[in-house]
Specification:
6-stranded mixed β-sheet; about 15% helix
């Protein structure tokens, strides 16, 4: 019989390190946030009567390997961390996945600045007779978004920006979630040596994408081919890729990478494993995007191939297992036993608490090992509910997380938590007590063994 073991599925107090494996397979654009570039002021009206002033507007991100993104915040009361790394993701992995007004936010993005860069026309539509500056347009758009993303009672300070915000909020209509700039599905496949393992289907808005073979293709002999066995170096939307594994290959695994130059669709979400505030795309230059898929193969027994993605609707992380082996793959997860029959695929949701950081490694037969780390960040938190206080800003230069100075910082804080240091201290104390083990997944053996 085959099984799976989790070595250290535990809560951790701090977000996963940047070089850890992300909970979802990277797909689309990866970027680093550079700061708030075009903005105005806004006032948040708290339930207790307090008022907090924040900067509101467009952030700018630099895409890895080339490209620039413009984004708005959809996570008002969470701080933006200095030089945080962001990954394009589906709405299901963010608060947007459970927000009935997410489609209205996308409508706002498509019908306001910077998508509508004719400010005179935008002012006319909103009834702003005195016209709009870029700062007004950015602030008004952000304020309208916050009213739907966070349910915030927030107003723009500038009257022109406020009038634009009211217009956008009133006229917003539902719009469908945009598709990924580039993704591969499924993200993990399995099979036997001597056959084509797959398929992995490419989804992209780029004309064509470049296919990179496994890093050890020369020595392993593994090729990336189409269903007819012809080697593939480029692929279009809807194309299917297979791992051609030699018949004499030892049990093992490999990755393939697809890369393209594409414009990321407006409305795509961006999240950070460092728990920096969630962003939503407002504009994109031609950018380098990529996606990765993996394959596992073995001569006999269970052949587990795993991938994971956050599932905010279910409040956890979905672990998908593809077992194209000739034996079932059985494991116990959080007190529940799961069996993936030979030749099938199954998804199991690991329930987690909101804002919970996690780090666990799944191991299996044939030296199989897969690590998943991250932070479940599925909800926006109102100040009144969390007890946090929003920093009052005079300029777009708040104290970054971990910075105790009052100047020389880099990013705007559209709703930074004043309780960050207290939460960090509490987290460290939690680690001192010992990480809470959520589950132990143990290897199953035949009776009498």
């Amino acid at each position: 019989m085959s099984g799976v073991v989790v070595t250290g599925l535990a809560v951790v107090a701090q977000p996963a390190a940047a070089d850890d494996v992300a909970p979802q397979v990277p797909a689309g654009a990866t970027a680093t946030i550079g700061g708030l570039k075009t903005y105005g002021d806004a006032v948040i009206h708290e339930e207790n009567g307090d008022e907090q002033t924040v900067s509101a507007g467009l952030f700018e991100m630099s895409v890895d390997d080339g490209g620039t993104l413009q984004t708005y915040c959809v996570d008002l009361h969470n701080p933006t961390q200095k030089d945080a790394k962001y990954q394009e993701t589906d709405w299901s992995g963010t608060s947007l996945g459970t927000n009935k007004d997410a489609g209205r936010i996308r409508w706002i993005l498509r019908n306001s600045y910077p998508q509508v860069n004719d400010l005179a026309a935008l002012a006319a539509r909103a009834g702003v007779r005195s016209g709009l500056t870029e700062q007004d347009a950015a602030a008004g758009t952000q304020v309208a978004i916050w009213r739907y993303s966070d349910g915030a009672d927030v107003d723009a300070v500038d009257p022109q920006a406020e009038k634009l915000a009211d217009y956008l909020e009133k006229n917003a209509r539902g719009a469908a979630e945009p598709k990924a700039s580039l993704s591969l599905a499924p993200a993990a496949v399995s099979g036997h040596p001597g056959e084509l393992v797959g398929p992995v289907t490419v989804h992209t808005n780029a004309g064509t994408a470049t296919v990179a073979p496994p890093a050890d293709a020369v020595t392993s002999g593994v090729r990336i081919v189409d269903k007819k066995g012809k080697e593939v170096t480029s692929v279009a939307d809807g194309g299917q890729l297979y791992f051609d594994v030699p018949a004499d290959a030892a049990d093992g695994s490999a990755d393939l990478t697809v890369q393209a130059s594409a414009t990321v669709p407006v409305g795509r979400a961006f999240t950070s494993e460092s728990h920096s505030q969630t962003q939503i795309l407002a504009g994109s230059s031609e950018s380098t995007v990529s996606a990765t898929a993996s394959a596992a193969w073995a001569v006999k027994g269970a052949i587990p191939a795993l991938s994971a993605a956050k599932n905010c609707a279910a409040g956890g992380v979905d672990i998908s297992t593809d077992n194209q082996g000739d034996q079932p793959f059985t494991y116990e997860l959080l007190g529940t036993e799961h069996t993936i029959a030979a030749g099938t695929r199954q998804t199991v949701t690991v329930p987690l608490e909101e804002d919970q950081a996690y780090d666990f490694t799944i191991t299996g037969p044939n030296n199989f090992e897969k690590r998943f780390t991250g932070v479940l960040d599925c909800r926006t938190q109102a100040v009144a509910a969390s007890g946090d206080s929003t920093q009052t800003l005079d300029e777009p230069s708040p104290v970054a997380v971990g910075d105790t100075t009052t100047g020389g910082v880099d990013l705007a804080d559209t709703g930074s938590s004043g309780a960050t240091s207290e939460l960090t201290a509490a987290g460290l104390a939690f680690v001192a007590i010992g990480a809470l083990t959520l589950a132990v997944i143990r290897k199953r053996r035949p009776a009498g063994n």
